[in-house]
Amino acid sequence: DQGAGRRRPHHYLRAYARMGLGERSEAITELRAAVEHNEPWTILLPLDGLFSELGSDRAYRTLLPLAVTAR
């Protein structure tokens, strides 16, 4: 199996892809998973301009303090 041993991209990176596809809800789902898995890039979430358009979304705003304190 060629797929054996391959790792999936981090949830944070998948959130980037979802945003690029205009899939805001799916991006938030990936960001939530990134926070839950303590992915290292989540600490940058409040500063990451790519996700700034999600600022009006309550689900996104609830992730921000979790991303910073999850370490």
Structure explained in plain terms:
- The chain is mainly alpha-helical.
- Helices cover 49% and strands 0% of the residues.
- It has helices spanning 11-20, 24-36, 58-69.
- The longest helix has 13 residues, at 24-36.
- The protein is globular, with a radius of gyration of 13 Å.
- The mean pLDDT is 89.
Mean pLDDT: 89
Given helix and strand content, the structural type is mainly alpha
Beta-strand percent range: under 5%
**Span between N and C termini?**
36 Å
| Percent of residues in helices | 40-55%
Overall radius of gyration: 13 Å
Q: Could you give a short account of the major beta sheet?
A: none
Number of strands: 0
Mind sketching the topology for me?
Blueprint: H1 11-20, H2 24-36, H3 58-69
Descriptive keywords:
3 helices, single chain, mainly alpha, 49% helix, 71 residues
Short recap of the structure:
The protein is mostly helical and 71 residues long. The chain has helices spanning 11-20, 24-36, 58-69. The longest helix has 13 residues, at 24-36.
